[in-house]
């Protein structure tokens, strides 16, 4: 029942976004999605990550598996895509690297595992985002044989506030408690707006681009399988192995496994469009993985809550 209520709370803003699309409340839905996405990416989610790090009284995870699992699982899955489907390797790597770990991941982790899990989840999101905004676009360019400037791509990534929010949050922990309280009070209300705004724009996006579902093919199914089946499976396997050697505790494994099941982030389309590589494929993969995640995320949450604690 608790998981059902949590899922309903997450889905409600998505349905509001779909309803806004049906009612044609926005003259230009793509422009509305772009503006809302910029607010979430540049303000709301950096504030949420900052709040998760500066407000909590916790110590950094000391088990090496927490820091190794995400890059290892992403590398294994991306290389599997490179070997198995070289013509789709660029967009597959971008999809795998940039999951919806902030927009959907943090709210899902909070609902499923509780608010106490947010600090560690924020750190895990920081690892994801760092790889997504640096390695992801580079692999998209290189593995798509599209050329392009890797230096310019990395430079654009370095200007993303979400990339710097974890560093600022950790640095702010060195400040006096009173100063931290003031900063957190400023960031908290902005961060709280992140999930509902992002989920609303997701619903609006899905409604406006619903026609793309009519043109899905084998390449789209491959993207869904790699993002929602292969990556979580590799993450679960890696988490189990790391736990067996004492390198990863179950609570952290639960967070990392749950985040691995998130669909592709909407931001991947903006990156692909900006780089001029795979924009059409990326947009279809976003829609397909988001809809398929309605079935796979609850299953992953069930495994995280019932199977992982038995390790």
Distance from N terminus to C terminus (CA atoms, Å) equals 24 Å
Secondary-structure element string: HHHHHHHHHHHHHH
Total number of strands: 0
Structural category is mainly alpha
Low-confidence segments, given as residue ranges, are none
Determine the fraction of residues in helical runs and give it as a percent range. Answer: over 70%
Summed over residues and divided by their number, the pLDDT gives a mean of 85
What profile does the largest beta sheet have?
none
What count of helical segments does DSSP give?
A: 14
Alpha carbon gyration radius: 18 Å
Overall geometry comes to: globular
Strand portion, in percent?
under 5%
Write the layout of secondary structure elements.
Blueprint: H1 2-22, H2 29-54, H3 64-84, H4 89-97, H5 101-113, H6 118-143, H7 150-158, H8 161-172, H9 177-192, H10 194-208, H11 218-244, H12 250-260, H13 267-275, H14 279-306
């Amino acid at each position: 029942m608790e998981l059902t209520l949590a899922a309903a709370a997450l889905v409600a803003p998505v349905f509001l976004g779909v309803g806004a699309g049906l009612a044609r409340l926005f003259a230009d839905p793509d422009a509305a999605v772009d503006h809302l996405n910029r607010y979430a990416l540049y303000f709301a989610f950096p504030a949420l990550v900052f709040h998760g790090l500066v407000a909590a009284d916790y110590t950094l995870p000391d088990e090496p598996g927490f820091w190794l699992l995400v890059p290892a699982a992403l590398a294994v899955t991306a290389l599997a895509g490179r070997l198995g489907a070289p013509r789709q390797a660029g967009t597959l790597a971008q999809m795998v690297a940039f999951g919806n770990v902030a927009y959907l991941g943090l709210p899902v982790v909070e609902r499923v595992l509780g608010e106490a899990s947010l600090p560690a989840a924020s750190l895990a999101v920081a690892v994801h985002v760092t790889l997504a905004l640096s390695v992801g676009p580079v692999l998209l360019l290189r593995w798509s044989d599209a050329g392009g400037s890797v230096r310019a791509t990395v430079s654009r990534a370095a200007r993303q506030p979400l990339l710097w929010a974890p560093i600022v949050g950790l640095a702010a922990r060195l400040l006096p408690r009173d100063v931290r309280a003031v900063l957190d009070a400023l960031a908290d209300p902005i961060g709280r707006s992140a999930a509902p705004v992002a989920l609303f724009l997701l619903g609006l996006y899905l409604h406006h681009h619903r026609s793309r579902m009519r043109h899905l093919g084998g390449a789209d199914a491959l993207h869904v399988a790699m993002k929602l089946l292969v990556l979580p499976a590799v993450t679960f396997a890696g988490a189990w192995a790391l736990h067996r050697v004492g390198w990863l505790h179950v609570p952290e494994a639960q967070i990392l496994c749950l985040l691995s099941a998130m669909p592709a982030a909407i931001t991947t389309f903006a990156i692909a469009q900006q780089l001029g590589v795979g924009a059409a494929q990326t947009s279809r993969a976003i829609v397909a993985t988001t809809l398929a995640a309605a079935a796979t995320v609850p299953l992953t949450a069930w495994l995280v809550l019932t199977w992982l604690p038995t390790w």
